[in-house]
Amino acid sequence: MKFRFWGVRGSIPSPGPRTVRYGGNTTCIEIRSDDDTLIVLDGGTGLFCLAQALVAAPHRPIEANIFITHSHWDHIHGLPFFTPLFIKGSRVRLHGATDPDTGNGIEHVMGVQLQNSYFPVGEAQMAATIEYRTLAVGEALPVGDALVRNVVMSHPVTDLGYRVDCNGKSVFFTGDHEPLFNLYREDQPEHAAFAQHVAQRTAAIDDLARGVDALIVDCSYTREEYPSKVGWGHGTFDGALAMAVRTGARRLYCTHHEPTRSDDELEAVFAEVMARHAPLPGGLQVFLAYEGLEVDLG
User: Fold this and answer.
1) pTM of the model
2) Which residue segment(s) compose the domain that 255 sits in?
3) What is the total count of domains within the chain?
């Protein structure tokens, strides 16, 4: 199994000379299982770049299994521009969570973008076969020779983290995730019950991520930036490292880079964090994700 990053920025695309090394596209990760089944995690603007590579390759027909972590723009904006949707014989399966506020399934993520006010082409004009699969929380779904499982993460909207297993190799992606914390002070009566809720939710996430070969985590902020952004639904480098250590991950890939941060600034932040946490326990390896980074797990 191998995976490749096609988009690593958070919130909004940020192309330009300041981000040319790590890339300016928003979240999209391609996974290839051992039998070459295509699994895609999130449909940010990096999905368009993946689409161009798929169309240029000799493989036909194209079958893509897309798993959306959540419905915020930077994770779905590439969907209408996924070129295989317009190619007859292609099959695109879109997976994701139910929106608990509206009851809408994953098909709404596509439908709202294809309204005529926002996009000139409707689904009826797309030549591919499109299938929608709204996932149950905790569902285990075989996809080719891989198994995809999910868990609810911590974000202002329902966000599914995904674990993909294939023949003994594994990847876990948090999507957007802010480590859970207690909303109540210790002197408030709700504190004890909510502390138990935090512990249970954190344990469920850690259990699914435990022992993965590759842990891909939202590292939007530094510890200094985070206090002014509490509740925004994003994590820190320090939080990601803590999760990697707790779960026994072999490799940590930091992604969802802050869009205002230049490549030089990103590397400086990363160097400071790594220096503070050296030496890393248990042989853990840590990397900054960048567009085009491909990892073969064997």
Assistant:
1) 0.96
2) 2-296
3) 1
